[in-house]
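Many introductory courses stop at the sequence. We go one step further.
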Amino acid sequence: METAEFRRHAHALVDWMADYLERVETYPVRAQVKPGEIAARLPLAPPEEGEPMERIVRDFERDVLPGMTHWQHPSFFAYFPANSSPPSVLAEMLTATLGAQCMLWQTSPAATEMETRVLDWLRQLIGLPEGFTGVIQDSASSAILCAILTARERATGWRANEEGLAAGPPLTVYCSTETHSATEKDAKVAGLGRRNVRKIAVDERFALRPDALEAAIVEDRAAGAVPACVVASLGTTGVGAMDPLRPIGEVCRRHGVWLHVDAAWAGSALLLPEHRALLDGIEHVDSFVFNPHKWLFTNFDCSAHFVRDPRALVRTLEILPAFLDTRERPQVIDYRDWSVPLGRRFRALKLWFVLRSYGAAELRRRIAAHIALAGELETWLTAAPDFELTAPRSLALLNFRYRPRGLDDPAALDRLNERLLAALNDSGALYLTQNRVRGRYSIRVSIGQRATERRHVEAAWQRIQETARALGA
């Protein structure tokens, strides 16, 4: 493709993207296709000759778009948001055009130095104290893996990378029963073994109990295991539970255990000073992560991982073949030593665009607005005689179920709410997620999409009521 042709198609695609953002709420939120339907539209063999871009774009609209779930739809209330925004999209276009592989300072100095600076902007914005240094990971799951790997090395006297784990005692990892499954997966990847992950009991608000944590650590140590890492959560996936960092951190310090905090979703709310109390005890934390690609209007992937001791992270992950050694190495950061992959995209650019385009004040306003909308929905739910919350609201996250009068059988209530969720999601008008809260089938609502307004939440609540009562009747 020649530059002139590229320019013509690029202009057309930018127009398409702008139109898409304007009309996204006219699409069904969740893709309305059956398994295999999109694959059936795609040829079994690759094309022998090149095809005109007009045909490719036409086929994208005809064959691909129907199979997309529209995460940027204002009625997307499932999972957690994976927010995009116009300034972030523009930055991604530049990143793709530059096509840089930013593994070393030398391979793109601006990418490295911008990453260092914007991560420190984020540190300031969420109230992390000085002494934390940031790096962009692809996801919070990768940050947890880095924490477990570093904790593994520290717990084995920096021998596991060289000698493996077979000769030593088992290493144990601790999290609550509500913690994201990434902790279990990362313990498997790190070679610790899933059965060495201890799921600690929670209190009435689903937060990890520090007394139960300490009892588990003491028991494991007495049995000959080495407690290595605790993964605490600020905003668990299911109910948004907030683990108390200070008492957990005090337990970790007493027993020499690494403390990592997973605030993947809720960390963005720390931009609001009224939520900074969640950081009480941060002085005991070794590493911390939150995802701007969830609730800070920055395209996936962009996970902000902060560490108190960067040297420990680098010592865990560094490997230095001759082709990666550079003359600037003693003076600069080479972020390829701060994460598992060697290759790195220029992810800091979109974060720089977002922070400069919106400014801290507007970001705070938008996050506060989402929390306020969730509070309003909570009011409507609690006022309805045939609905109930199954967990306390956490920021912009709610769990509820339909419970018509006279229906008390637990299994029947589960079946009814499962049918309700299926009917709502199949409608294409909104998208919600299933959950289990203390064994009860629940419907989970997460408000945080960039374009969501009160009218979208109000329309969702109206449809939930109408659909539920039709099923109940």
